[in-house]
Specification:
Layout: H1 2-55, H2 63-76, E1 82-84, H3 86-92, E2 95-100, H4 111-120, H5 123-127, E3 130-133, H6 137-148, E4 153-157, H7 163-171, E5 175-178, H8 183-197, E6 200-201, H9 208-224, E7 230-234, H10 239-251, E8 256-262, H11 267-274, H12 297-306, E9 309-313, H13 315-329, H14 335-346, E10 355-360, H15 367-378
Parallel strand pairs: 2-10, 3-4, 3-6, 4-5, 7-8, 7-10, 8-9
Antiparallel strand pairs: 1-2
Helix pairs in contact: 1-8, 2-4, 2-9, 4-6, 4-9, 6-7, 9-10, 10-12, 13-14
């Protein structure tokens, strides 16, 4: 009888265990289905938004607006150094001049655009709050500029964002909302939220005031070194490259502007090269400033007309350029910040005897990223 009781108790426990496991399996299945539906909805929204963008013709910033932006930017930000690096020039085999935008207060060039845009907003727009999406540097620029002008800022970021940039945005008073696996999913979410809540949405590329603000760094370059004949610019969304085109071609139409993207995030490169709107399924580069799966209409519109050349670089080339910049200029560059130097090494044969401006666009590299690069370099 005692054995029967134990057997019955065991049977009850087994039945309960099977019921619990069944609940867990069902819950996981439901969670997976919900996640898949959410991902599909985000992708559908992304495709719909990009189709609309492809058909649009947007108003472009003028050189006059860049000069106006300089009046604003110069009151709040550094005029960063731009000079020839002897060691880097020797390594490359041509005169290499570096624009040190890593020395800006947020560690990246995008702050110029953020300050110019925020200074130009109406009182009504400032009261509504601003909202944007970013992998980090654009978010810092909006957070800093918003704090400067007394505006509340909401920054949507991918869930696996650079912790250095996340903490910087928080210190600057930005309210962070984590959404999606990458920049594009965060952007779709914040665009919807802005419409729903009435925020003043700031697109990280399709904003003439942002591009005009960024253009001020190229005015400085052309003033400091009028004989520069080539400028190499990293491309994420393309605000930097489009601004370079507007300024350089105005000052000297013979200056060549070259864009560079990561091989693992080539959407803008492919769109520029093919003349069609091209999106990618992933943007898996460690250089988060270059990690976009779709182009931005306004910068692409400008680059298609004015950009002279466009190259792709590998993850290994970007990481090697991070170390080369540290060794030759004693400056820390993040992945996107080293991309122009990576492209310069790839193009050095055709750049021989030229006077080349390289944009060190940002220096927000984490210690973990640096350790990974150093480990790979040792092997």
């Amino acid at each position: 009888m005692k054995g029967d009781g134990v057997f019955q108790e065991y049977s009850v426990l087994t039945e309960c265990s099977e019921q619990i496991n069944s609940v867990h399996r069902n819950r996981k299945r439901v969670q997976h289905d919900v996640t898949e539906r959410m991902s599909d909805e985000v992708n559908d929204d992304l495709v719909s938004a990009n189709r609309k963008a492809e058909d649009a013709v947007l108003s472009e910033p003028t050189i006059s607006e860049v000069y106006e932006a300089r009046e604003i930017v110069s009151r709040h930000l550094l005029r960063t150094p731009f000079f020839r690096s002897l060691k880097l020039s020797h390594a490359l085999g041509f005169d290499a001049y570096v624009k040190y935008e890593n020395l800006q207060i947020t560690g990246a060039f995008k702050i110029r655009g953020g300050v110019n845009l925020m200074a130009s907003l109406s009182e009504e727009e400032r009261r509504r709050r601003v909202a944007t999406a970013s992998t980090g540097n654009h978010g810092q620029s909006i957070a800093y500029a918003a704090q400067l002008f007394g505006v509340k800022a909401i920054i949507a970021m991918p869930e696996d964002s650079n912790p250095l940039k996340v903490e910087a945005i928080r210190r600057l008073g930005g309210d962070i909302a984590f959404h999606g696996k990458d920049f594009d999913e965060a952007r779709v979410w914040v665009e919807k939220a802005s419409k729903r809540e009435g925020y003043r949405y700031v697109h990280s590329g399709n904003e003439p005031l942002l591009i005009a603000g960024v253009g001020t760094l190229y005015l400085e370059m052309m003033e400091d070194e009028p004989d520069i004949d080539t400028i190499i610019v990293p491309v994420g969304g393309g605000s930097g490259a489009s601004a370079a085109c507007i300024v350089a071609k105005h000052v000297n139409h013979e200056v060549r502007v070259v864009g560079v993207q990561a091989e693992k995030a080539p959407a803008v490169y492919r769109s520029w090269k093919s003349g069609k709107w091209v999106e990618t399924d992933a943007a898996d580069t460690f250089a988060e400033g270059l990690a976009t799966r779709a182009p931005f209409q306004l910068p692409l519109q400008i680059m298609r007309r004015m950009l002279d050349d466009f190259v792709l670089v590998s993850e290994e080339e970007i990481q090697r350029a991070v170390l080369t910049l540290f060794e030759t200029t004693h400056q820390v560059a993040e992945g996107a910040g080293a991309a122009a130097t990576a492209a310069a090494f790839r193009m050095r044969t055709q750049l021989k005897d030229r006077k080349v401006g390289l944009i060190l666009s940002g220096g927000n590299l984490t210690l973990n990223q640096l350790r990974t690069i150093l480990r790979r370099d040792r092997h």
